[in-house]
Structure formats: structure tokens, C-alpha cells
């Protein structure tokens, strides 16, 4: 019998309706379209405006999109993982609520939190359950309501992030398609450069932390940029080398959408032509855990069975890595 590999067999997505353009941001903070476009590649991002709705709202929508497009019965799902940096609330899992909302009544569920690498790490986790033969259908969702943790008076962060969600289904494959290799890294030196100071066990919420705006994302952009550029390129080059993939063998790069300049640097290191580099940062900004599945959803019709795809991400922590996957279907 052939070895079981873990293939992505379905994709779904959801972005909220409200479009926050660079022009609108320029009325809120001291910035302009030219600066944002040239420094990041972002033109607009989506924002979940509805009060009282969190990341699970978008996770449910993305999962429902996947289920309805593929006519799948949610009762067949064994496990739901929600990759997120913005869970609905502490303690009560976003994934558990999401699984119940979509009718995945036979599944167990949990959240996976690793900043902008949450979805990439989630791909590794989901694939491992499939490869071991333990489960047959693992639903991995990346969902983030970044607008809930962004300070819209801070021009260095508020221009970057947006809200959204995407979902993929992992299933066993015996044709050798799906996840081929991974190279995942992390380094705690990154903690001080990209974080939320308050609201965790080190500094619980108090009147003072609220007054000091410590519940919003802090980022030392320049330092994070430096690490992101070199590390994302390094791991992508490494996964190519390890799997003896030439630039011609790679069909697509699906990279975390944090800054177009970081993605371009990675593509350059891989010597890839522009059309192989999937991009939607101009439309959504950095949606943290949702960037990779949103790319798969936007470009689903382009991806063909057997295509060699390199995934790459870099995020807070620091966390980063790359995955080599063979696409398993034509849509
Ligand atoms: O997804 C998780 C990982 N995160 C990332 O990968 C993000 C990594 N970092 C970045 O993408 C970039 O560092 C930023 C987009 C955040 C910033 O771009 P930069 O080219 O690194 O700009 P900078 O921070 O070096 O700032 C350059 C100048 C500064 O002014 P001075 O000191 O040169 O006078 C900033 O004050 O641009 C100024 N600036 C702005 N100007 C207009 C900073 N933000 C803005 C803004 N509009 N929004």
C-alpha cells in the first residue's frame, strides 16, 4: 500500500464587506496612499464592523463556503482547528464554537495560536493527523479580526492589518499529492518586537493598561521587517534545496501577505518569475492567520493537480517557516 499523504481537497473563504481604503486611513492618521502603497503594496483592507461579532463569525462563514461549494456533510469532519491571533475570548475556544455553529457535531476542536505563522503551523498539525492515519477529515481555518487589536491612532500599524478568514480541508491521499516537506522555525528573541503588552498573564487588564493603550498591537516595524526578509527567504530557499526543486519546478509561491517588499525579496531569492508569486495584499492587507487560505481561495481555479507549491510565512514570536505541497485537484 502506498504511504498516506495529507492533501488539501477543498477551500473556502470569507471577508467582511466594509472596505477600509488608504484614502479613508489618510483622514484618520497622518499618512497617504503613496506612502502606504510604496512601503507595503496595500491599497485596501476589509473590516468586520458588526458589533459583538468576533473571529468565529468569519471562521464559520469561511467553513460554510467550503462545505457548500463542495457539497460536504459537516458531520463527517473529525477535527476543526482554528488558527488565530484574535480568538473570540480567552479560555473558551473559538474553534469549538465554530465547529458547533457549522454542524460538525462529530468533531473535536481547538485553537492554534502562533501569530502570522498560525496557519502555516496549522497545516503541519492538520497534515500530521492525516498522515498518521488517525483522522480522515481535518478542517483547518485561519481567521483573524485584527481590527479588534489595532490602534487606529497609530499610523505605523493601522495601515497594515485587515480582517478575514479562509478554510481548507485536509484528507488522505495515496497518489503522493499533498504535503511533501516542512521546515518550521521559532525564536523567542522576537517577543519584544511584535506583541500586545497587556491582557495576558504577565500584565492583566486594569484601568491603567487601558489608559496606556496597552491592549493594542505594538510593532517595531523596521526590526520585524529585517528578520522577516531574511528568514522567509532562507526557509523558502532551504525547502527548495532540500527537495531538489529548481525555479522551474516551483509552480507557485504562496507567502504570508505582510508586506509586498518581503514577498518580493523571498521570490527573488527563489529566482521566481512574477506570475508564480500569488498576491492579494493590495486587496486585504495583512489578515494574519487568513492570508494563506485567502490566497488559495482567490487563486483556486489557477491551481492544477500536481502543481508544486511553496508556502512561506513569518510572524510574531518570532515564528516562521516554509512548506512544500503538491496541489491535489483541479477546480
Ligand atoms: O505579519 C507579521 C510580521 N510583520 C511584518 O512583517 C511587518 C514588517 N514591517 C514592515 O512591513 C515595515 O517595517 C512597515 C510597513 C511597518 C514600515 O515600513 P518601513 O519602510 O520599515 O518604514 P519605517 O518604520 O522605517 O519608517 C519610515 C518613515 C518614518 O519616518 P522618519 O523617521 O523617516 O521621519 C516613519 O515615521 O515613515 C514614517 N511612517 C509613515 N509615514 C506615513 C511610518 N508609518 C507611516 C505611515 N504613513 N503610515
Structural topology:
Blueprint (H helix, E strand, L loop, with lengths): L4 E10 L3 E4 H7 L4 H8 L3 E4 L7 H15 L9 E5 L10 H8 L6 E5 L5 H14 L6 E8 L9 H4 L4 E11 L4 E9 L7 E2 L11 H5 L6 E2 L1 H22 L9 E4 L4 H11 L6 E2 L2 H4 L6 H8 L9 E8 L3 E8 L5
Parallel strand pairs: 4-5, 4-6, 11-12, 11-13
Antiparallel strand pairs: 1-7, 2-3, 6-7, 8-14, 9-10, 13-14
Task: Detail the poorly predicted runs.
Answer: none
Q: How many domains is the backbone divided into?
A: 2
Note the main sheet: 5 strands, mixed
CATH class of the largest domain: Alpha Beta
Strand coverage percent: 15-25%
Strand order of the largest sheet: 1-7-6-4-5
Class by SSE composition: alpha/beta
Total number of strands: 14
> CATH homologous superfamily of the largest domain - what is it?
Thiolase/Chalcone synthase
Number of contiguous helices: 11
Order of helices and strands: EEHHEHEHEHEHEEEHEHEHEHHEE
- Spatial separation of the terminal alpha carbons: 27 Å
Amino acid at each position: 500500500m502506498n504511504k498516506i499523504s495529507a492533501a488539501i481537497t477543498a477551500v473556502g473563504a470569507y471577508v467582511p464587506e466594509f472596505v477600509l481604503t488608504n484614502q479613508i486611513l489618510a483622514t484618520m492618521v497622518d499618512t497617504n496612499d503613496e506612502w502606504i502603497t510604496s512601503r507595503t503594496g496595500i491599497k485596501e483592507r476589509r473590516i468586520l464592523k458588526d458589533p459583538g461579532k468576533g473571529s468565529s463569525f468569519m471562521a464559520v462563514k469561511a467553513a460554510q463556503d467550503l462545505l457548500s461549494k463542495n457539497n460536504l456533510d459537516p458531520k463527517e469532519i473529525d477535527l476543526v482547528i482554528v488558527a488565530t491571533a484574535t480568538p473570540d475570548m480567552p479560555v473558551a475556544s473559538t474553534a469549538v464554537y465554530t465547529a458547533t455553529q457549522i454542524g460538525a457535531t462529530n468533531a473535536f476542536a481547538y485553537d492554534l495560536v502562533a501569530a502570522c505563522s498560525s496557519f502555516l503551523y496549522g497545516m503541519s498539525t492538520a497534515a500530521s493527523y492525516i498522515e498518521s492515519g488517525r483522522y480522515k477529515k481535518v478542517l483547518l481555518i485561519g481567521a483573524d479580526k485584527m481590527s479588534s487589536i489595532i490602534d487606529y491612532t497609530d499610523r505605523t500599524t493601522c495601515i497594515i492589518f485587515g480582517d478575514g478568514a479562509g478554510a481548507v480541508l485536509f484528507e488522505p491521499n495515496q497518489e503522493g499529492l499533498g504535503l511533501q516537506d516542512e521546515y518550521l522555525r521559532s525564536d523567542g528573541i522576537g517577543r519584544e518586537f511584535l506583541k500586545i503588552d497587556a491582557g495576558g498573564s504577565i500584565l492583566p487588564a486594569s484601568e491603567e493598561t487601558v489608559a496606556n493603550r496597552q491592549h493594542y498591537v505594538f510593532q517595531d516595524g523596521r526590526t520585524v521587517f529585517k528578520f522577516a526578509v531574511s528568514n522567509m527567504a532562507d526557509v523558502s530557499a532551504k525547502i527548495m534545496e532540500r527537495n531538489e526543486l529548481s525555479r522551474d519546478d516551483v509552480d507557485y509561491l504562496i507567502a504570508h501577505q505582510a508586506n509586498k517588499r518581503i514577498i518580493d525579496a523571498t521570490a527573488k531569492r527563489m529566482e521566481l518569475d512574477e506570475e508564480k508569486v500569488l498576491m492579494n495584499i493590495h486587496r486585504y492587507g495583512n489578515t494574519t492567520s487568513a492570508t494563506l487560505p485567502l490566497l488559495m481561495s482567490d487563486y483556486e481555479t489557477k491551481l492544477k493537480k500536481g502543481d508544486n507549491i511553496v508556502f512561506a510565512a513569518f510572524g510574531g514570536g518570532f515564528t516562521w517557516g516554509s512548506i512544500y505541497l503538491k496541489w491535489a485537484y483541479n477546480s
